[in-house]
Amino acid sequence: MTARRTSPEAFDLGMFLAVRAANRVIEESGPVSENNDQKFVYDFTEGNRDLKDLLGGKGANLAEMTNLGLPVPPGFTITTEACKVYLESGSEPVELRDEVTAHLDALEQKMGKKLGQADDPLLVSVRSGAKFSMPGMMDTVLNIGLSDESVAGLARQADNERFAWDSYRRLIQMFGKTVLGVDGELFEDALDEAKTAKKVASDTDLDAADLKKVVEHFKKIVKAETGRDFPQDPREQMDLAIEAVFNSWNTDRAKLYRRQERIPGDLGTAVNVCSMVFGNLGPDSGTGVAFTRDPASGHEGVYGDYLQNAQGEDVVAGIRNTVPLADLESIDKTSYDQLMDIMNTLETHYKDLCDIEFTIERGQLWMLQTRVGKRTAGAAFRIATQLVDQGLIDEAEALQRVTGAQLAQLMFPKFDEDAKVEQIGRGIAASPGAAVGKAVFDSYTAVKWSRSGEKVILIRRETNPDDLDGMIAAEGILTSRGGKTSHAAVVARGMGKTCVCGAEELEVDTKRRRMTTADGQVVEEGDVVSIDGSTGKVYLGEVPVVPSPVVEYFEGRMHAGADDADELVQAVHRIMAYADRVRRLRVRANADNAEDANRARRFGAQGIGLCRTEHMFLGERRQFVERLILADTDAERDEALEALLPLQKTDFVELFEAMDGLPVTVRLLDPPLHEFLPDITELSVRVALAESRKEPHENDLRLLQAVHRLHEQNPMLGLRGVRLGLVIPGLFTMQVRAIAEAAAQRIDAKGDPRVEIMIPLVGTVQELEIVREEAEQVIAEVQARTGVELKLALGTMIELPRAAVTAGQIAEAAEFFSFGTNDLTQTVWGFSRDDVEASFFTAYLEKGIFGVSPFETIDKDGVGALVRSAVEAGRATRPDIKLGVCGEHGGDPESVHFFHEVGLDYVSCSPFRIPVARLEAGRAAAESKGSDSR
């Protein structure tokens, strides 16, 4: 920001100097509590910003500002430890009351008046303040100490009767709602009645007599709703308010916010007791909020709001229109200049965007709070690089000021926030982005309409591999079932498609080609819908979309050094360049074809960590796998394998060429059989109808018999992976031959294929040894026939608990491990990842069993512990073993930090998540280096 410097005389504040002198007396006398082991209360002069765990963010920052010599009203902080004792035991620590009394006595001595004193009352605010900012989630009570007796004394001291009665009605209103649990609308209605009777629109138009009547009405409401009078004892008011703030830690809204922001639930909140300063004393008083930079854009300047003759809650509640902070210069230039100077001091001291709350009392500026301000994703990147340029932070610190989640927000297109919308449903935000198109209900129509130039949204109850063509053709995918790791979600993320899953309130009827909303509205095929993969919201009609320049940068369509390059793109470029320089983890892509591989390289992929060969046999090719699985004789099986070989070889040649010079990990076929066999119910109906009509059905009958023979109750734990390769002779050797021949062809063409063959679902080293021996024979045959030396690594996917536990044995036959954390999470927890998110995960999240889905962020204590032990055991057996992860966790920011910590060599993720993984790998390295230096 551009701050204005003022002369030293700007801080010639009588009351402030007196307070500072009193503070020095307290500092010299030492802490109030004699039992330092059980110290639950700290004066603002005793703390600092490093004590956030103990004093909460608000208390720590009030102490820091006090120590900086800024005008902070005196007060004290009750620690988070006291809150934890209260929440665990149901009562306050026995020492707390005496400590509060001692600090209150000291505060009264500083201020020269007592709490609620009849002729000149000391009033205090009681405010929450957790370690992490939770704005508006917990409770605050202002003007504590006012009573029927002291309100008159306040009026005389302030020479303002209206101010006194306005402050008293505010206390009763806030206390009644927050502490006593009275419905807040009852107070609002009473206040509206008073304005209606006076025929005025604003609270400020009510005079002292009006407000005195409002106070009486408010007290009657308290008596009627609680059965007791409003408490007149000021100490009782304060004690009850402190208890209410403790209790507010566990309100529903606070819990929901913590789950959303992933804030631990056991931290507790501190309580700040602060002497009141008043912004509602008249036109020379007011209250406001200021930012040292624009939290929306990151640009420097004067940003904030100010409201004359008001207390803080008036600004937050929006009950009166504020004026821009810049207007304060013409209203009260002295206070404005002081504020600009203080804002500059705070930003320089905190080396970051600061969010500030202040009050002006009759021309005297007071600082009520500061914190590192929340900002948009774009502002985060801009501010980080601005602070580097200003010499306030270095590049390592700049890297810590942004997150992968913020980068992801910048990468995906968004709907225009100012557009008028009609929301018709909401599901799980499965794959970010904003997509608009005509509703279609099957893949064939999606492809057909797309080829005709139509943009479509594919709507299904859930998707399956047969829907792949339609998913590719569609702008986005909407399902009424499934979760973030369902087929639709995983595939959509891999393709960078917008996806909303599990929109259960929407009834999808694919036969009638329509969707019905919860209120009965029908969306027919061809109607335009819009889906927001970042929020899970579904809209009827077209919502305008704003493109992302950040994606254009990563795709190479925008150069960060160009004169017309977006300022945001330049900031992202600089942060990413530093992340790439410092990160240890390499980042690969999950990609199954040349197109995805090329996109991944543009996004910065350093290889392919997972090529799922079963994805090469969807759509029209599915028949070949079906023929192979259903073959009755060796001849039929050999014929099917012979047909598959050239298709596979062509795929691999294209893939190796696209990723030339970089490693490519090819996973051998791992199809749960139900994905490649006809649906048993549909097939049974077809056979029954043919029999009733006496129509030929020999092929369907034979197919039905085979499906019955191979049908599994739980296909994800059935005949798949290495088991399929061992049961169907020639399957894996055909794939290995195709891989080897493709690699030899690329070498002949002067290419540099770096191929790794991965055997899936291994549970014991014996399985791996058998497949490895067969693979080595095939590779040797190809070498002999082509005369090309092949160096193909052979390894396995660790996706079963037994594989993780016996990793030391498996490493004897594996040159690399790739942790398949999707299946490992499924098998460790006993969760079906296709079902549980829609069925009971919501309840688990609401009850706090999960902070976040274990399919979204790795479960460090369970799944993570197995990964850690497998890493240690694998390296003990084979020190040079290569270790990576290829589950969806490879692109999750928090999980990437864990994989850095346990010592993996690389992570692999969907192409569109590569920049996020690169950034987080850099952040993890910088964070680790910083911890080591400390």
From TrEMBL:
Superkingdom of this protein's organism: Bacteria
Domain Pyruvate phosphate dikinase AMP/ATP-binding: 53-89, 95-321, 329-378
Cofactor: Mg(2+)
InterPro entries linked: ATP_grasp_subdomain_1, PEP-util_enz_mobile_dom, PEP_util_AS, PEP_util_C, Phosphohistidine_dom_sf, PPDK_AMP/ATP-bd, Pyruvate_phosphate_dikinase, Pyrv/PenolPyrv_kinase-like_dom
UniProt-annotated binding residues for Mg(2+): 799, 823
Catalyzed chemical reaction(s): pyruvate + phosphate + ATP = phosphoenolpyruvate + AMP + diphosphate + H(+)
Name of this chain's protein: Pyruvate, phosphate dikinase
Domain PEP-utilising enzyme C-terminal: 570-921
GO molecular function term, any single one: ATP binding
Family: Belongs to the PEP-utilizing enzyme family.
EC number of this enzyme: 2.7.9.1
Pfam families, per database record: PEP-utilizers (PF00391), PEP-utilizers_C (PF02896), PPDK_N (PF01326)
Record-listed substrate binding positions: 612, 667, 799, 820-823
Positions annotated as active site in the UniProt record: 487, 886
Residues annotated as domain PEP-utilising enzyme mobile: 454-536
